[in-house]
Amino acid sequence: MAERPPARGAQDKLAFLLALVPYLMDHDRVSVNQTAQQFAVTEDEVREAVRLIAVSGIPGETATYQHDDLFDIAWDDFELNDEIVLTHLVAIDDSPRFSAREAAALIAGLQYLSALPENADRAAIASLMLKLSRGASANPSQVGVEASETDATLTLIRESVEAGTQLEFDYVNARGENERRRVDPLRVESVDADWYLRGWCHLRGAVRTFRLDRVSAAVMTGEPITHGASDVILPDSLFEGSPDDIRVTIDIATAAAP
Fold first, then answer.
1. 186 alpha-carbon distance from chain centroid
2. Considering only the top CATH level, what class is 10-94?
3. Distances from the Cα of 159 to the Cαs of 1, 28, 152, 209, in angstroms?
4. Are 176 and 238 in contact (CB under 8 A)?
5. Which CATH class is domain 151-224?
6. Which pairing describes strands 72-73 and 86-88: parallel, antiparallel, or unpaired?
7. What is the model's pTM?
């Protein structure tokens, strides 16, 4: 004879209910079986909890419970298909939310961040964008970060960072000189509309900064990097002076001075 699972105490049931409501909010439609597996409970315990949620709420101004003061579910789906769909939320809907415009701006910013090589956990960023879309006061506008000529290079750098391999590319420096470089990519940064790669340059034997619109014919070499981000101290500023810098003196009219 199969052993019956131990009965849950009041504290365990409360913890289950508190976790169940946000889980159902994050899933527009979920089966009783899937929910039971998620929380390691029986299907009957899930059904009992859902029925309890459906008669829970906050009393309105009359201090009595009206229909709009209670949670509600799609009963036909629940009773006929064993699926849970929340159709009315209580109190949670009254909490402050981002406007559709604010959510769209944040989602666009997250799309921008997900393109950076150092942000490897793009699944977490995608999950956050989905939650922002669901939690906004209205549906956010469909937005996207405009593609640029450097997108292909950024994608290749991201793949190189994830694989831990060196990059090789042609680079035209500020003097117009074209050289083939082999680089351990360390960090990608942007200043205004320009993107820059900071990495260990094997040709120079030091950290160098490369403007991506001057990079061409970039390929992953398959060779493992020899200098990682933890091995090299990168200066806070993107550009630093060097002994080779040319000093320029500019004479301006007094009226033009700030």
1. 20
2. mainly alpha
3. 55, 34, 11, 19
4. no
5. mainly beta
6. antiparallel
7. 0.44
